[in-house]
From TrEMBL, chain A:
Cellular component aspect of the GO annotation: cytoplasm; nucleus
Compartments reported by the entry: Cytoplasm; Nucleus
Family: Belongs to the actin family. ARP6 subfamily.
Record keywords: Activator, Chromatin regulator, Cytoplasm, Nucleus, Transcription, Transcription regulation
Primary site of residence: cytoplasm
Coiled coil ranges: none
SMART domains with a match to the protein in the record: ACTIN (SM00268)
Any one biological process term the GO annotation gives: chromatin organization
Name this protein carries in UniProt: Actin family
Automatic annotation (TrEMBL), chain B:
Superkingdom of origin: Eukaryota
Region (Disordered) location: 134-233
Protein name: HIT-type domain-containing protein
Chain ranges of the HIT-type domain: 311-338
Length: 445, 351
């Protein structure tokens, strides 16, 4: 199929400008790549939001929104895949194609490199291809596995591997294990030479959304009903939550003690309890985290002079991200992240294990939780043979890492192998493209 | 029934109604493997599988809670797309495909059900499935076995052997290779010396044979007799550390100079054992394998994989759930929280 087309004289030269999109469920990472330059990616909220005054914000207009109380979101991406094209088209139009769009481009002269999640449904892939060519009309298009794009980054730099100046940088990286923990889910992807090893990709259905919802539930049971304020809770999760390195100990410290005899740690806060000042929508639009002061929240509750709404966060701070490592805590019948890695490895030849374990890269917004790397390393070390070296690292900006990898891919020769022109789409049809992209790069030999 | 005189005409028009789809009823629903699947009599159905000893009522509660946690918004806000202010790209002409996609109100769950139905149809009736949706007819009607408790699609000897036996095999192979190398050396030397005096050759052979015997002994010591080498000896030459990985084209061999030798390198206790590297064929098969389907990629527990019981937490304060409400089975940490829970429990279930 692909070979037949290659033999013919190539059509017009590939477009010089490439729009690289990492279309996540929470944010779009977008930027242009030309042969000479790579723009810094712009992070755009991938949602249509409506605030309490029934004003609607699309995509990056959300910056203009001040008051996030009772805001509601509509998200075109579900479980990591673009499902609702009506909303997605609107957001893309306003960001990329309108006259006044912040990142305006002419699709007919642009190549699109789109990162998608692993294990998509064929119908959704088909929809995506049809929209790209029939509605937007990109000149050339490449839909690739998002996690695998990370291999095109300089992976050894993330690990700060000592190197001599004459060391060649492998692009794509030879062997790496990528853990992508995003808004919808967490995936483990072993990658060899930029090709994902599909039989070993595993997914855990715990992502940022589930954790935010869980925190919302805990707060609603213990403090106020926060169910209408997903944005505020999400902000709280991002600033206040951390991953515990000693779960049992931390849980013990946050216990209030038996009746009549409050435990000392509970009264002092034991370094874990924090006061979170909620935004009041007049003077403060973002929450503020403070050290716990015994008595402050109690006074506030009594309706004294204080005008602040204060939540004291105790075990909520570490119980929520703990779901990544122990999803069974809330009854999800899936293994935690450490076992997820082992399940992924178990289908691979043992000879690959040392390479994969020594090159574990974590990307995605959840990896920003404090202690994530250390905890993951401990969990994996507990499970692998003693003689294995385990290195876990996080790139400088885990949110845009996939985008940067995709941008590097867009400059790499591999993109020419995978990209499909509009003409090819019209000749061969959408089914051919779905098959071509799911076959991936293949192996030359 | 006379149907009140209404005659139903067969029409060619099909409606694609969102929100539902025909799904074949396959008993252990794979879609809900992570959730307790059966609302009714869940405790009985999941006697051995249930994570906890939760009653059916609690299972139902967990299931409902997880569904809520999985939702995007608390309330089903139906946010319409706002009218464009500077509507420049006001082209209202869409192709049929695009119009269909834009008007589709299907959610991911609908698409997933559709896909399952298609796969099931492809198993029973491939022709019909292909006719139904040619573009979707992926060349994988029979999905590969879930990799959870089966070896890789292309099982390798090294995946099935334990680490220890693989290491032993490696040692044996290295020893064998060493032996072979020495035998070759000896043969070469023999040929050389045959030209010289026979007596001298005889003496020379004895002197080379002696260290050779020593080597044999030491290699026997290295290789525990209980662990039979289960890698074929033919692979031995490819396992030499110099050519590691075995001249692969996919992953190139280590080309940099080796680290400085150390006195303890030969010490059998300090030798690091590296498992056999996969061959090019294995790597090729892994790298070109088709993607798994959405449900196959979901991680799940095997039948015997969960070694630890699920932890239980107090439903009020989040500490360990040490005691259980007699009425509904909810967990609480101590009397304080149990009483707080009772108030809620009474309002929900009565005294």
């Amino acid at each position: 199929m692909a070979g037949g087309r290659k033999s013919k004289p190539a059509g017009p030269a590939p477009p010089s400008r490439t729009l690289v999109l990492d279309n996540g469920a929470s944010t779009i990472k977008a930027g242009f790549v030309t042969d000479t330059a790579t723009d810094a990616p712009r992070v755009v909220p991938n949602c249509i939001a409506r605030d309490r005054h029934r004003k609607t914000f699309v995509g990056s207009e959300l910056e203009k929104c001040k008051d996030f109380g009772e805001i509601a979101f509509r998200r075109p991406v579900e479980k990591g895949f673009i499902v609702n094209w009506e909303a997605q088209k609107e957001i893309w139009d306003r960001e990329f194609f309108d006259d006044k769009a912040p990142q305006r481009c002419d699709p007919s002269e642009t190549r699109l490199v789109l990162a998608e999640q692993s294990n998509s449904l064929p119908a959704l892939q088909l929809h995506c291809d049809q929209m790209v060519f029939e509605e937007f009309g990109f000149a050339s298009y490449c839909r690739g596995n998002g996690p695998a794009f990370n291999a095109y980054n300089d992976v050894q730099a993330i690990f700060q591997t000592p190197r001599t100046p004459d060391t060649t940088i492998d692009i794509p990286a030879e062997v790496m294990l990528l853990i992508d923990s995003g808004y919808s889910h967490t995936t483990v992807t072993p990658i060899v030479q930029g090709r994902p090893l599909h039989p070993a990709i595993r997914r855990l259905d715990v992502g940022g959304k589930l954790m935010t919802n869980y925190l919302t539930r805990l707060l609603s049971v213990r403090h106020f009903d926060m169910r209408n304020d997903p944005y505020i809770v999400n902000e709280m999760k991002e600033t206040a939550c951390y991953i515990s390195l000693d779960f049992k100990g931390d849980l013990e410290k946050t216990w209030k003690g038996t009746r009549g005899q409050r435990s000392q740690d509970y009264l002092t806060g034991a370094g874990i309890a924090k006061d979170y000042v909620l935004p009041d929508s007049h003077t403060r639009f973002h929450g503020v985290i403070r050290d716990y002061e015994p008595g402050v929240s109690a006074k506030a509750r009594k309706g004294a002079v204080s005008t602040e709404d204060i939540l004291t966060l105790r075990n909520e701070r570490f119980v929520v991200p703990e779901l990544l490592f122990n999803p069974s805590d809330i009854g999800i019948r899936q293994p935690g992240l450490g076992d997820l890695v082992m399940q992924s490895l178990s289908v691979l030849p043992v000879g690959l294990w040392p390479g994969l374990l020594a090159n574990i890269v974590v990307v995605g917004g959840n990896s920003l939780f404090e202690n994530f790397i250390q905890r993951l390393q401990t969990e994996i070390l507990e499970r692998v043979p003693d003689s294995c070296i385990v290195r876990v690292a996080r790139p400088e900006d885990p949110v845009t890492s996939t985008w940067l990898g995709a941008a590097s891919f867009a400059k790499h020769q591999h993109v020419e192998k995978l990209a499909v022109t509009k003409q090819e789409y019209e000749e061969n049809g959408a089914g051919w493209i779905v098959r071509k992209f799911s076959a991936g790069l293949g192996v030359e030999s | 029934m006379n149907n009140f005189g209404v005659v139903e005409l067969a029409s060619a028009k099909t409606t694609h109604a969102p929100g539902w789809a025909y799904v074949p009823d396959t008993r252990p629903a794979p879609g809900s493997a992570a959730l307790p699947s059966n609302r009714k009599r869940a405790a009985r159905n999941h006697a051995g599988l249930s994570l906890s000893d939760a009653s059916a009522r609690q299972d139902a509660k967990i299931r409902k809670d997880l569904e809520v946690l999985d939702r995007d918004t608390h309330k089903d806000a139906n946010i319409a797309i706002p009218p464009r202010t500077g509507g420049s790209r006001a082209q209202n002409k869409h192709t049929t495909n695009v119009r269909k996609i834009l008007q589709s109100q299907k959610t991911f769950a609908n698409h997933l059900d559709d896909y399952q139905a298609l796969v099931a149809l492809a198993e029973t009736n491939p022709a019909a499935a292909a006719a139904l949706n040619p573009a979707n007819a992926q060349p994988k009607p029979a999905p590969p076995p879930t990799a959870r408790n089966s070896p890789a699609p292309q099982p390798t000897p090294s995946t099935t052997t334990s680490k220890r036996s693989a290491a032993a095999a490696k040692r044996a192979a290295a020893a064998a290779a060493k032996e072979e190398k020495e035998r070759k050396e000896r043969e070469a030397r023999e040929a050389e010396e045959a030209a010289e005096a026979a007596a001298a050759a005889e003496a020379e052979r004895k002197s080379t044979a002696a260290p050779d015997d020593n080597n044999n002994n030491s290699s026997d010591n290295n290789c525990p007799p209980t662990a039979p080498p289960d890698v074929e000896m033919a692979d031995a030459s490819s396992l030499l550390p110099q050519a590691y990985p075995a001249d692969g084209t996919i992953l190139a061999a280590y080309a940099k100079p080796p680290p400085a030798p150390h006195a303890g390198d030969a010490d059998p206790l300090l030798v690091s054992h590296v498992p056999a590297f996969p061959t090019d064929d294995e790597l090729h098969a892994l790298m070109t394998a088709p993607p798994l389907s959405y449900l196959e990629a979901r991680a799940r527990w095997g039948d015997d994989e969960q070694r630890y019981p699920a932890r239980a937490f107090c439903e009020v304060c989040g500490h360990w759930g040490k005691v259980r409400c007699v009425k509904c089975g909810a967990r609480a940490c101590a009397l304080d929280c149990l009483e707080a829970h009772r108030e809620e429990c009474v309002t929900r279930y009565g005294l």
